[in-house]
Amino acid sequence: MVSIGIDSGSTVTKIAVVGNGAVIHADSAPTGTDPVRSGTMLLDRARAAVPADFGGESKVCVTGYGRKLLAHLGTQKTEISCHALGTHALVTGKLTTPDSRLTTPDFGLTPHASRLAPGFTLLDIGGQDSKGIKVDAGGHAVDFAMNDKCAAGTGKFLEVISRTLGFGIEGVSAAALASGRKARLSSMCTVFADSEVVSLTARGERPDEIAWAACYAVAERCAGLVKRMGVKGVLIFTGGVSDLPAVAEALKEILQVDVISPPLARFSGALGAALFAAK
Amino acid sequence: MPVKLQAQDELKSLMAAYYLEAKNASYNGKKVAWVSSGAPVEFLYALDYVPIYPENYAAMCGASKQSPALIAEAEAAGYLPDLCSYARCDIGADIVQGGPVMGLPDPDLIVAGTNICTTIIKWFQQVAYRKKKPFVAIEMPYLTTGLGKSEADFVVAQFRRFRDVAAEVAGVPFDEDRFVEVVKLSAEGSRLWGEVLDIARRSPAPLSALDAFIHIAPIVTLRGTEKPIEYYKTLLSELETLSRGGLIADAQHTRLLWDNLPIWFRLRRMSEFLAFRGAIVVASTYTNSWAAIKEIPRKLDDIYEALARAYLEPYINRNFPDRVKILSQMASDFSAHGMIMHSNRSCKPYSIGQYMLKGMFTKETGKPVLILDADMTDPRAYSDEQAEGRIEAFLEQWFQ
């Protein structure tokens, strides 16, 4: 028996399979315009990947924006609860990852273990929303704050800016880290910031500096969510944008805390859903 | 699902008659005043004005989903999207003579109080400028340290000035006896409205506070006449029948408070969304803001002072410690388990400080609070998926 979590996000659908307290499969695909198709395709792929010794049975829980469309696949949970539980399992070592492709043995949490044990604050930045969640010692969300109906402070913002700069989304982070980290964008709005990028480019500002400014702008916007929840010493950073080290660097600079992304950080919602499926 | 009340049809007729009378006021030789929701309408009814509430009209435009087109008209005329959506909605309705009653009748007098917000002063000033009509602004100071004699006297002096201007525009002398009658009717209407709201203290609650937002119209627009009194008696009797007859089918596991104005264009959907999840909003700070004078003093001067005090005390004119007391009392009276605070993009005075209030309320009562980003009449600042996802997460987190 395995439990499967599907996180149908606005940009990417993630799936995680958990069996015997270990992550045995994690996969993702663009959500596209048909969340049912991407979710079902990932589920078929996941079931095929589960080793035969787990028995062929599975329980499924769905979360994320597309969860209602995928409700026929299993139970539903909101992404707040799933991110809290999934991230908690990752940072407290409740889930092991025997497959070395899925994780690295030490991701820098050891020195912070005592600070994380009573609970922690996590920041998840996805394609369409960003959320700060306060998690208690048992992995439950005790408070949360999310962005309003606005793309500023989300992956969408970086996607738009990276297109204007001519970088891929990963290229923005790499360029930002190589910059002098001085430039700032003054606009909060994605549309205005995009035209500000054009103006900065026209003034001769270097693209890597602008890339840093964009990463810094996202971090600055999301730092507000984190501050509302309160953060002590260490912030756990998850979601697709946590794959961009420049945003983590900017968060460190703004919040003056350690910023750590566990392995499989982009799968924390799906992992949480898998854990709920098992309950 | 929430029950559809028969009184709702009566409400429709009542409001249709009210707007019809307003539209025909000039034919009937009556003066029209545009009034903010927190202005002392008793003086106007005593002078036989037809008071019109642009805020109520904007709410109607929102509830009937006509606001986006009207807002677009105002923005096309140069009003910024950051301006209150009630203001944009009404300005748009005035430009195209749109909305449920095809625009409001022109005013002879315009009056606004600062007890609900200060945007309304600039908004109505602009109306006065366009319509070339007199405008009276009544300053009702924010109760930073509570309500004392000096604040009441300050407002009473302005009430007298307003009374004189209104009488001059109406061209008739002010009849103090008639005024006292109107104040009595206003107090009785408010008392009955309070009874309607208080019925939700029962479990199960026969009326959700989200549905009460609809029934607020008579106490806002017709306060000081017999009509709200008659209407709320009918409504109360129907609610009593529902309650005593055990006719409330919805499970109400989670009882919530609501802070701020409603999301007018999603009122029904929100009510059903909550009901489907076993939750109900039992009280709101907004619907409870229309409780006026409790007892009518004998002397006229004292009536003026009592009225001034009543108008100085709406929830959003109170300091934060007072607001927390009100919220905590409300949570206790209505046996609420938590609260949704609508962070309303349009209504800054209501929304500023909500994060602080949230913390203060939770510390005081131990009850959780969700802050929900939305707007009262501009659907462009709202996303169903985001808002409902947050409410669902809040319910899942605390109550399931």
Write up what this structure looks like.
The complex is a heterodimer of chains A (279) and B (400). With 279 residues, chain A is α/β, with parallel strands linked by helices. Chain A folds into two domains: 1-107 and 267-279, Nucleotidyltransferase, domain 5 (2-Layer Sandwich), CATH 3.30.420.40; 108-261, ATPase, nucleotide binding domain (Nucleotidyltransferase, domain 5), CATH 3.30.420.40. Chain A is 39% helix and 22% strand. Chain A is built from nine helices and ten strands. Chain A has helices spanning 35-49, 79-91, 113-116, 155-165, 169-177, 190-202, 207-229, 245-255, 268-278; strands at residues 2-8, 12-19, 22-30, 58-63, 75-76, 119-125, 130-136, 141-146, 234-238, 258-260. In chain A, the strands form two sheets. Chain A has a five-stranded mixed sheet. Chain A has a five-stranded mixed sheet with strand order 8-7-6-9-10, with helices on both faces. In chain A, α5 (169-177) crosses α8. Mean pLDDT of chain A is 86; it is low at 100-106. With 400 residues, chain B is an alpha/beta fold. Chain B has a domain at 7-174: Rossmann fold. Chain B is built from 17 helices and eight strands. Chain B has a four-stranded parallel sheet with strand order 2-1-3-4, sandwiched between helices. In chain B, strands 6-5-7-8 form a four-stranded parallel sheet, with helices on both faces. In chain B, α6 (119-131) links the parallel β3 and β4. Classes of the chains: A alpha/beta (279), B alpha/beta (400). The A-B interface holds A 65, 77-81, 129, 140-146, 148-149, 228 and B 345, 355, 368, 371, 373, 381-383, 385-386, 389-390, 392-393, 396-397.
